[in-house]
Write a structure and sequence with these properties.
Layout lengths: L1 H22 L8 E17 L9 E7 L3 E5 L6 E2 L5 E8 L4 E8 L12 E6 L1 E4 L6 E15 L17
Parallel strand pairs: 1-9
Antiparallel strand pairs: 1-2, 1-5, 3-4, 3-6, 6-7, 8-9
Length: about 170
């Protein structure tokens, strides 16, 4: 009888230890999200205004910029804008709903001149939930518009100026 009692005691102890250790969710590493950002980069520059009879009149023009390097603060690979100024950035980050992206003009005087470096905070929205260990979901931003300005526009820094992209 004593042997049976000891065997029951040992088995119940093993069962309790197993039950408690299995019920705890083990986490390895930090929580993270995956994200993608879709957008278009526009540039503002001046051209001769042929609609006015006076010589030397200039008008401001906005157009998509190609070849702009797009870098996320949490992505290892840069993206580049297409001929239409479009870009897609993929990344992995600690859980957040805002990501900072930098835009750099790589072609010098191409695209009608040299544009100032731009950084912009992009708000993300959750597309799908996570649930697998540390994965906390897929986040996305679409239709992001970025406006860059020429370095020779007598601007010392990128203004917070919104213009329509026609």
């Amino acid at each position: 009888m004593k042997v049976l009692f000891r065997l029951i005691l040992i088995l119940s102890s093993v069962f309790c230890l197993t039950a408690f250790s299995c019920s705890k969710k083990k986490t390895i590493g930090e929580p993270y999200i995956l994200y993608e950002i879709h957008g278009t980069v526009y540039g503002a520059y001046y051209v001769d205004d042929t609609s006015t009879p006076e010589e030397g009149d200039m008008k401001r023009v906005t157009s998509p910029l190609k070849g702009i390097r797009v870098i996320s603060d949490s992505s290892s690979e840069p993206a580049y804008t297409s001929n239409e100024g479009r870009f897609v950035v993929y990344g992995r980050s600690v859980p957040t709903d805002v990501v900072t992206i930098a835009f750099d003009d790589q072609d010098g005087e191409g695209n009608h001149g040299t544009f100032m470096r731009k950084t912009q905070r992009i708000e993300l929205r959750q597309k799908s939930a996570g649930g697998d260990r540390n994965y906390e979901g897929y986040w996305i931003a679409t239709d992001v518009e970025v406006n860059m300005f020429l370095k020779n526009d007598n601007l010392e820094s990128d203004p917070d100026f919104n213009f329509s992209a026609n």
